[in-house]
Amino acid sequence: MTRADFRRILSKAPFAPPMPTEFDIAYALENTRVLHEPDRRIDTFGSTEFEFKLVSELMDEAGAVRVRDGKIEAEKPMILRADGFNGFDFEGFGPEAEGFGQFLRENLQHLAVLKYGFRFRKNDFSEHLVHEPLDAVCGKLVDETRQSGNPKLAIIQGVDDTWEVCLLKFTVEMIEKSQGINLFDFKRRGLL
Q: Alpha-carbon distance 28 to 160, whole Å?
């Protein structure tokens, strides 16, 4: 096998893109901005669908912006309870830790956590390039969204290579903004 044959085989091999580094993830999180957020929050008793337009500037082509369109579904929050769990082991700790362990065992039935799940569907996904400055593209998309009044649409500005991290940051922010409402709804119905 010659080098040319080897290069030809490698060029056709389906290689996965490299995993983002910790720096790449931190950079994406720091540079994600939600320019327009949906009017609604995550529903307490049903799934909620959000639409997004994620805008990112191409790093290797001046004046080119990628716009990704898609849908993300937030599943209804689930209550996770720790009923009956007493598997705390405080070996090697002092009496304060053992006292805290006893408190947890006695009060665990009163503690609950909400679990959120999101589903991203690739069949509802598209992307296209726009040859305009990033600020102009973002401004147009925000203006169009405000005019349309779509309550489910988010406009997100992010980083091209790690755009999925940017989308995950948006989902975490939606959870943070919805959690108080969801807890109130569960308590009002006597579920917490």
A: 9
Q: Is 114:182 a contact under the CB 8 Å cutoff? A: yes
**Does 106 share its domain with 120?**
no
The model carries a pTM of 0.73
Task: Kindly report, residue by residue over 121-168, the tens digit of the pLDDT.
Answer: 656 789 999 999 999 999 999 999 999 999 999 999 999 988 888 988
| 191 within some domain | yes
Q: Are residues 34 and 103 in the same domain?
A: no
171 and 190 co-located in one domain: yes
Residue whose pair of structure tokens reads 């102009």 in the numeric block = 136
155, 34 in Cβ contact below 8 A? Answer: yes
- Write the pLDDT tens digit of every residue in 163-185: 888 988 998 898 888 888 888 88
**How do beta strands 65-74 and 78-81 pair?**
unpaired
Number of structural domains in the chain? 2
- Whether 105 and 120 map to the same domain: the answer is no
- With H, G, I as helix, E, B as strand and everything else as coil, classify residue 80: strand
Gap between the terminal Cα atoms of the chain: 68
